[in-house]
Amino acid sequence: MRTEQELQLLQRSFYEDVLNSIPSDIAVLDTEGRYLFVNPGAVKDPDVRKWMIGKNDEAFCVHRGKDPAIADRRQQLFKRLMETRQQVEWEEEMTNREGKKEIFLRKLFPVIDKQGAIKMVIGYGVDITERKQIEKKAEAGEKRYRDIFNYSQALICTHDMDGLVLSANPAIIHSLQYNEEEVIGKSIARFIPDDQQALFKSNYLDTIRKNGRAQGVFTVVNRAGKKIFLLYQNYKVEEKGAAPYVIGFSQDITQRIRAEQELMQAKKYTEESAAAKKAFLANMSHEIRTPMNGILGVAALLAKTTLDNEQQHYVSIIQDAANNLLAIVNDILDLEKIDAGKMQLEEIPFNLTETLQSIIRSFQFRTEEKGLRLINNTHLPRSMYVTGDPHRLVQILNNFLSNAIKFTEQGTITVHTRVTIDKEEWQAVEFLVEDTGIGIPEEKLKDLFAPFTQASSSTTRMYGGTGLGLSICKNLIELQGGELWAESFANQGSRFRFIIPYKKASAPAMTNPTTVKHDYKSLGRKKVLVAEDVELNQFLAKHIMEAWGFEVTIADNGKKAVALLQEHSYDLVLMDIQMPEMDGITATKTIRSLADTSKASIPIIALTANALKGDSDTYKQAGMNDYLSKPFTEAGLFAIIEKNLGVPAATPDQRATAITRQDYNPHPLPEPLYDLSMVRAVSGGDESFIQKMVVLFIETVPPGLQDLADALANKEWQRLGKVAHKLKSTIDSMGIVSLKDDIRTIELNGKHEKDTDALAPLVEKVLATIHDCIAQLKVDFAL
Amino acid sequence: MQKGQPKIFVVEDNPVYQTLVIKQLEHISQDIHVFNTGEHFLSQLTQEPDLIILDYNLDGQINGYDVLKAIKKAESTSPVIFFSSNLEISVTSSVLKLGVVEYIEKTIFTLPRLRNTIARVLESSMGIAV
Q1: What top-level class would CATH report for the domain A269-338?
Q2: What is the distance between the alpha carbons of residues A621 and A639, in angstroms, rounded to a whole number?
Q3: Superfamily of domain A152-252
Q4: N or C end: fewer C-beta atoms under 10 angstroms in chain B?
């Protein structure tokens, strides 16, 4: 058994062990501040510990060489503890013996006896150097984030899952112009305009709850009532032990949106005004066509009257100017049709080679007149039937050729044509119009096909034109599935190359319809009612049809037309669309509902200047049989009347062909025997001159043919050449294209007595062809 | 015949071209004389026409070149336009050497050039704006 003393010793040694083993500083001081106990945690050296007992702290600090300020502070705190009897706590920074800075958290607390007096003071210290460093770092990091939050231009906030604002950075406060207290703790919904409240909940809050994130544009209203647009990207933050919240970043895009809105507005306005201008232009062009119809028609009639030289000159100026104006108007309308996607292309079989030849021939006169050469360099077969739109091809080539002539002062214009791709079903045909004119500067080439553009405004002054032609051509070519290229060198010339794919077609059995000539007397004495309010047009229609032997009655509005039709009988009605009192559509509907079925079913042809709208459907629905665009030609009017009277009269050509086939040629003719377009051009519209030329041909050529035959029979080759030479120019002037090469071969070979064996069949061909030609001319001109 | 109208002689044997050429001249003058042969034309040369339009191949014994030589020999000052389908270099060069206002190929396509040339010649020699 151990004694009580032994037990006490054991107990004390146990406590001392505990105290000595604690890795913190522990010291016990008496009320005077003298050390009673120091553990090894505070002072390692046992000799120093022993020395310290009974000494005060100041002596220890001096002994250790510590900063006097430390001892000073400790004394003051000790004093305060003695006075207040409350524990004191402070952080103490000091440099250890290795020169490292250490920070200690120190506490002094009084031990109070039963009487309430301070018995002793226990000092306790922990090394918090490491903790302090971590704290410092964390503080610096947080400051950085706080700075971002405070100084950021971005709008940053946090809010809870119901939209209550937890924090908002100064940028938000600045944007909203509310105080911080007016924002924090309030619902975001407060700043959302009324009409978007529902969206705020469904598009935003619900989304972020479900997906953890949301982005988009908020519309908020600030204190001044101004709408602000915020592009946001917000995330839900979930942390353990805390309620989830949302952190939001957004930027003010109000200005950008306003600028965008203004831009859209400006764009819309520009487009609208451009469309309005275009519509105005199209409408105006359309309005110009009607009076132009009258001007051209009457000028043509005037030109047929007896005029002196000066008067003829004036009339031709009127005709030229009116035709130019009409061409411009048609260009504008074409462009409008293309723009509106209303341009309809024909799909008819035609002889491409022949169409090409006739276009080029029609320019021969103009090129010669300007002292230029026009060359047709074609590699197309002599007869090439394709399906497509011949009129548009004519329009395109006309444009390029007109331009070439217009911009070329000297040299040559060449039209090259060839097939570039030849498939079973279709062929791609390349057309190249080349000139030696002023050319186009390279920098202008790219704008060339934009509407209303010419190489320069001085070009317009010098050469005229609307600058629409090329744009229309490009569009027309592309509409036909083709492509257009332009190449040019200033002062050297231009090359316009385009390729159009054409479906192949088989040759028709009869001669080409382009050469159809109408026999205007062939329909007999028909009675036509013309409903038309414009006096000029009344006069024109009457004059043209009376010359055909028709009986023409004029009604100057739809109402009168209906009344006249009820009283009299007619074979056909020509109906203007726009008329006072009753328009053409209403009049047609009225006629179609007449009780007398023979009158109700009369053929009605619309005369319309409304070609732009192309709504033939409207006319058909109203009960019209057909329509004719104004201004119309005599041939066009005749063709449409002939078609709708249901009695297609034979054309002179058809009749002639029949006779020719029967008498001279067992096969259908591949092409027209002759072409009087040049004679017609020379005649200046004088029909009697054309007649005279035909008579001369018929009378004077046969002796030459006889000479030719005689020379051949006698093998007088030189003479044969001379006779051929004489016939050559006559054959050319009558447009007998099929003999063009043959007669030249005879001339040259005869002269040089070369290949004379081959001459007989050529002479035979010349004799037979001219024979056919004379026969047909006699039929066509009723000689 | 109006006073002041230019007197124009056309030496051309092809009736088709006679008509075509006259058509070109109809607004310029009514005083036009057409000759089928060089011989006939030369017999009338003393009339000193204001303009002569001459072809190469002619009916008769002499050709247009012979006619042109005779015109020059007679020291006629009448301007001559050669209008012929004969384009042999030997012919054109000798004609041009003798001196003509213009040598124009005779085709229906070149009629405008003929007309322009006629107008130019008459304008410069007679001051007639045609």
Answers
A1: mainly alpha
A2: 22
A3: PAS domain (3.30.450.20)
A4: N
- CB-based burial, A606-627: b 16+ in 10 Å, e otherwise: bbbbbbbeeebebbeebbbbeb
pLDDT score, position A396? 92
Low-confidence ranges of chain A (pLDDT < 70): 1-2, 451-467, 508-518, 536, 609-616, 630-632, 646-671, 684
- Which value, in Å, is the radius of gyration of the alpha carbons in chain B? 13
- Chain A CB within 8 Å of residue B113 CB: yes
State which amino acid sits at residue A336: E
Q: Testing the interface with B: which of A733, A744, A748 to mutate, by most B Cβ within 10 A?
A: A733
Q: Is A368 within 8 Å of B112 when comparing Cβ atoms?
A: yes
Q: Which residue of A has its CA nearest to B86?
A: A725
| A654 at B interface, C-beta within 8 A | no
Q: How far apart are CA A656 and CA A99, in angstroms?
A: 131
Partner-chain contact A729 B27, CB within 8 Å: no
The string of pLDDT tens digits covering residues A142-173 is: 888 888 888 888 899 999 998 999 999 998 89
Beta-carbon separation of B108 and A725 below 8 A: no
| Residues from chain A contacting residue B12 (CB–CB below 8 Å) | none
Beta strand pairing call for A373-378 and A412-422: parallel
- Delimit the domains of chain B by residue range: 8-126
- The CATH homologous superfamily to which domain B8-126 belongs is Response regulator (3.40.50.2300)
> What per-residue confidence (pLDDT) applies to A509?
52
| ipTM confidence score | 0.73
What's the fold here for domain A516-648?
Answer: Rossmann fold (3.40.50)
Check: CB of residue A333 under 8 Å from CB of residue A285: yes
| A650 DSSP 8-state letter | P
B82 close contact with A: CB closer than 8 A = no
Tokens for A152?
A: 């950021």
Distances (CA, A) of A348 to A388, A488, A508: 5, 34, 11
Cα A637 from Cα A607, distance rounded (Å)? 10
Does A726 lie at the interface with B, CB-CB under 8 angstroms? yes
The dotted CATH code for A344-508 is: 3.30.565.10
Q: Are A230 and A155 in contact (CB under 8 A)?
A: yes
Domain ranges of chain A: 4-133, 152-252, 269-338, 344-508, 516-648, 654-780
CA distance B92 to B86: 8
Q: Is B57 on the interface with A (CB under 8 A)?
A: yes
Residues A502-527: b if buried by 16+ CB within 10 A, e if exposed: beebeeeeebbeeeeebbbebbeebe
Q: Which two tokens stand for residue A106?
A: 């120190």
Which residue positions in chain B have pLDDT lower than 50? 1-3
Mean pLDDT score across all residues of chain A:
83
A726: which chain B residues are within 8 Å (Cβ-Cβ)? Answer: 14, 57
Nearest-CA distance B32 → chain A (Å): 17
- Cα B11 to Cα B48, B80, B101, B113, distances in angstroms: 14, 10, 15, 18
- On chain A, the residues whose CB falls within 8 A of the CB of B111 are 368, 682
Quick check: B17 and A679 CB within 8 A?
no
The CATH number of A654-780 is 1.20.120
| CATH code matching the domain that covers A4-133, chosen among 3.40.50.2300, 3.30.450.20, 1.10.10.10, 1.10.8.50 | 3.30.450.20
How confident is the model at residue A515, as a pLDDT? 41
Instruction: Tell me the pTM.
Output: 0.38
